[in-house]
């Protein structure tokens, strides 16, 4: 497993797996995933889903249910920091994927 993310601090790991049908799933562990026929398609889908989450958080904050344990504070901090980049007009791909010298797909 290769963990990449923003330089400012902790980031959830990214996991890549090949599905039975030959497609890719790229997961930002604890937040969301993206699916596609290629790694690029899966990354595009992941970014689109993540942007929806960031938009929701911008409007609603972090609604928390009393029926479940509280979310990981590191994950909440990560979402907030990533959202800050989006709200300043930055492309989140650079912050999300950074430079990936190699990606272990065995996990």
Question: What can you see in these coordinates?
Answer:
The structure is a single chain. By secondary structure, this protein is α+β, with helices and mostly antiparallel strands. The protein has one domain. The chain is 40% helix and 14% strand. It has helices at 39-60, 73-87, 92-97; strands at 14-18, 24-28, 32-36. It has a 3-stranded antiparallel β-sheet with strand order 1-2-3. Helix 1 packs across helix 2 (73-87). 13% of the residues are buried.
What's the total count of β strands? 3
Shape: globular
**Total domain modules:** 1
Q: Counting H and I runs of at least 4 residues, what is the number of helices?
A: 3
Radius of gyration: 14 Å
Low-confidence stretches: 1-7
Strand content: 5-15%
Estimate percent helicity: 40-55%
Lateral arrangement of strands in the main beta sheet: 1-2-3
Q: Structural class of the helices, strands and pairings?
A: alpha+beta
Mean pLDDT reading? 83
> What is the CA–CA distance across the termini?
6 Å
Note the main sheet.
3 strands, antiparallel
Brief account:
Helix content is about 40%, strand content about 15%.
Q: How would you describe this structure in keywords?
A:
107 residues; three-stranded antiparallel sheet; 14% strand; single chain; alpha+beta
Give a topology summary.
Layout: E1 14-18, E2 24-28, E3 32-36, H1 39-60, H2 73-87, H3 92-97
Antiparallel strand pairs: 1-2, 2-3
Helix pairs in contact: 1-2
């Amino acid at each position: 497993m290769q963990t990449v993310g923003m330089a400012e601090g902790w980031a959830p790991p990214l996991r890549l797996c090949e599905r039975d049908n030959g497609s890719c799933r790229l997961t930002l562990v604890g937040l969301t995933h993206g699916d596609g026929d290629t790694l690029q398609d899966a990354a595009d889908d992941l970014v689109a889903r993540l942007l929806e989450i960031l938009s929701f958080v911008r409007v609603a904050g972090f609604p928390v249910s009393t029926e479940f344990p509280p979310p990981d504070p590191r994950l909440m901090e990560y979402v907030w920091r990533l959202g800050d980049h989006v709200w300043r007009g930055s492309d989140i791909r650079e912050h999300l994927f950074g430079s990936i010298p190699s990606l272990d797909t065995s996990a």
